[in-house]
Amino acid sequence: MGKDFIHIDDWSQNQILASFDLALEVKAKLKKRESYKPFQDYTLAMIFAKPSARTRVSFETGFVRLGGHALYLGPTEIDIGQREPAKDVARVLSGYNDMIMARLFDHAHILDLARYATVPVINGLTDYNHPCQVMADMLTIKECRGHLDQLKIAYIGDGNNIVHSWLRMSMRLPMYFICACPPNYPPDHATFEMAKNGGLSTVEIVHDPMQAVREADVVYTDVWASMGKKHELSERKRHFKGFSVTAELMAKAKPGALFMHCLPAQRGLEVTDEVMESPASIIFQQAENRMHMQNAIMLRLADKD
């Protein structure tokens, strides 16, 4: 296992599966209020170029509940890549902290942090990928289904950083991953080709949501315009017409199919309120599991698993 967690496929299949088991073990300990403080006297520096409620609360709460101290560094406190180069930030924070988590725009900045830091660096999100989210998603699917066999994921929407992490997950765990997106909003071509040629999973891009969800075990969506692209929302609404996850669309999936969304959601756009509140929706279990999965990732990187 490498020092950092930047992309899902940085870890082997066995390491990923072991981390799911660890996440569930630690989740059970926290639910029982067992005293479990492996990060006592440890500090975590959390760099936020992109603000986020879920990422901050899940990392900070998780690290504190495991006995450590988490330090929030907001967009104006570091301004990584502008006020100070990422390689300088990496070495300064390594002298103060035991671990660094960063939620950034530019993927090159997380790569520089990992290259120059002497402590583990965790990718909390970049414009390119969101590995902790999709690790938590897969953990949640395992919890709900009891297994990950013969899994079909139908993603409906923008070919964004979530899709890139699903594609990289497909290079480690077998699945059928299909992305239904408007023609002008596909995922990164190189990442798609890498997953397609990986030989482990079937991956596909289509432009018809109804086609994508047939026999799907999971229907997944995200906002149509991610942070940094909100100014494009009016235009995107035209392009994404027909890409809302509705009850009608869910009915085309496999009976008992699950609905997932990484949140926050714009109800009435990419998904209806009816679907969000339906028995198929596991969005809040999914959100909680961010903390448990990230705890497991941090424990493994710190050799405390």
Short characterization:
The protein has helices at 13-31, 53-65, 75-78, 86-96, 107-116, 131-145, 161-169, 189-196, 209-213, 233-239, 247-251, 273-276, 283-301, and strands at residues 43-48, 69-73, 99-103, 121-125, 152-156, 176-180, 202-206, 218-221, 258-261.
Q: What is the CATH T-level topology of the largest domain?
A: Rossmann fold
Query: What is the succession of H and E elements?
Result: HEHEHHEHEHEHEHEHEHHEHH
Number of domains: 2
CATH class of the largest domain: Alpha Beta
N-to-C CA distance? 12 Å
Neighbour order of strands in the largest sheet: 7-6-5-8-9
Content of β-strand: 5-15%
- Which stretches are low in confidence, meaning pLDDT under 50 for 5 or more residues running? none
Per DSSP, the total helix count is 13
For the residues shown, what is the average pLDDT? 96
| DSSP strand count | 9
Rg computed from alpha carbons, rounded to a whole number of angstroms: 19 Å
Shape label? globular
Helix percentage range: 40-55%
Q: Could you characterize what this model shows?
A:
- With 305 residues, the protein is an alpha/beta fold.
- The chain folds into 2 domains: 8-130 and 291-301, 3-Layer(aba) Sandwich (Rossmann fold); 133-286, Rossmann fold (3-Layer(aba) Sandwich).
- 42% of the residues lie in helices and 14% in strands.
- The protein has helices spanning 13-31, 53-65, 75-78, 86-96, 107-116, 131-145, 161-169, 189-196, 209-213, 233-239, 247-251, 273-276, 283-301; strands at residues 43-48, 69-73, 99-103, 121-125, 152-156, 176-180, 202-206, 218-221, 258-261.
- The strands form 2 sheets. It has a 5-stranded parallel beta sheet.
- Strand 3 (99-103), helix 5 and strand 4 form a beta-alpha-beta unit.
- Helix 6 (131-145) packs across helix 13 (283-301).
- The longest helix is centred in the first third of the chain and has 19 residues, at 13-31.
